[in-house]
Structures are given as C-alpha cells and as structure tokens.
Amino acid sequence: MTIKLNVLILNWNSANDVAGLLISIAKSHFADFRVILIHNATSDEPAIRGLYNKYKNIFETHLVVNGSNLGYAGGNNAGYEYLKNNGLDGDVLILNPDVRVSPTTFEKMHQVLMEQGVGGVMCGALDQCGHSLYDYINLVGFTSKYRHTDRDSVVTDYLAGSCMMLKRQPLEQIGLFDENFFMYWEEVDLSLRMKRKGYKLLSTTKCKITRAANDNSRSLNAIKYSIRNSFLIRKKHPEFGLLAHYYYLLGMLILATAKTVKYKSLSYLSGYFESLIYK
C-alpha cells in the first residue's frame, strides 16, 4: 500500500495524551498513513512502548527513542530523519499529543495540501468545550492574532505547531525545524522559510482539531522560550523590525508580571529577565 502521509507524534511526559490521540487517529477515514511515535527521553517510555506494541497491529507504526530531550524542534527532526534514513516516502503531519482529530481531518487537510503551489496546511481548532479557538493566524509584528472565517480555506501567516501538514518536496529543500529554537517560534521560522521558496500556506475550516489548554508549567516555558527565541527570529528574519520587538518584549513583561501575581511565584519574572539575552 502506498503511504501518502507520515504522522509524527512527539512524546514528552505525555503518554496518556498520546493514547487519546491514537484512539482518535484509529477512527480516521484516510487510510494511507503511518504513525511515527517519537519518545523524547522521559520516564514514561514503558507506556509509549506499550502503545507502540498495541497500535502496530492496527496501523503501520514506528518508534523512535531519543537518548535525551531534544525539544520540540529536535524531537520532531529525529522523526523526520528516521523517515529519510529508512526511505519512507510521503508527506508529513506533525501533531501535538494533546490534540484530537476527527475522522475526516487527515483527508480534508491532505486535499488542500495537494493544491498547486501549497507547501503546508493547518486547520481550525476547538477547545475541549467545543468553542472555536481559531481558523487561521495573522502575525502582526511579533504578536499572533487568532482569526475566524466563513471561508473553506484561507491564507495563514504561519502554521500552528500543534497540527501542521507539510508537503515533502519543500522539506527536502529547506529541512524541517531549526534546532536552535528548541521549542516555540520554530513553526514560525519554518513557515517563513517555506514562503520564501514561493509556497503558499493555507488553513482549512472543513475539519477541526480539538486542543487541550496549556497547563501552568507549560505557560512558564512559553514565556521563557518565547522571549529567548524572539531574538533568534529577529536575527534570522530582520523584516520583523526592532521597534516591533520592543513592543513584544514590553507585552511579555506585562504578561510575566500578571502571572507572577496570579500564581504568587517569582519564576515568571525571573524567567523573563533570564531570557532577555539570546545566547
């Protein structure tokens, strides 16, 4: 059977979420896919191996075990390198473990991906109560604006890292993620590099994913790495501009202060100031 799609799922202390995601994937109407489970060196490796052993008898499943935590960028890159090293063809879908797909998600997204000139596709997202989070994303300076639309498909400034489907050809030209980011902003960098090669990025509303809310610990990492990596984004993509960066850093300072007050923890403000100098 020809495999049209490789589904990369990166685990970092998320075995329970991965289990739920695989349940939803098993209901997919789109049959031409394989799953690459990537384990990023956390203590739940036995659970991930158990899921691999279970699902390899349901659909084609492979397991990649990293010796250390390579972050979102390096972890997914390890899955992509596994595809290349083993001669596995097909486009790439990156899914976060806390995502749930509908039976038509793969099919609807891949239909859009096959349109002429398209390099990558995302789709609309719902929260766990069924409320719409976004249909596509505008990037205004360094700030993401989550938009809604009545159109079936629309141009998006970048692809959401929680669910992004990528055509194999541009990946062969530009690679997947820049591992210097580790986590956060790497999907923006990839999207900008893809657009520079002339590829369109689209979002479809013909299907939706469901996303879980980020927990408190992840919000701390979001602040730290978002600030750190904003310097790397500005270095790689000067069109963002210095003034826009200053506004972004001020906004993040306000956010870090608010979270410090809310959670009564100085870790947010200390993380902010530690991240101001990109190394």
Automatic annotation (TrEMBL):
It comes from the Bacteria. Keywords: Glycosyltransferase, Transferase. Pfam families: Glycos_transf_2 (PF00535). PANTHER family: GALACTOFURANOSYLTRANSFERASE GLFT2, RHAMNOSYLTRANSFERASE WBBL. Transmembrane segments: none annotated. Belongs to the glycosyltransferase 2 family. This is Glycosyltransferase family 2 protein. InterPro entries: Glyco_trans_2-like, Nucleotide-diphossugar_trans. Residues 7-174 form the Glycosyltransferase 2-like domain.
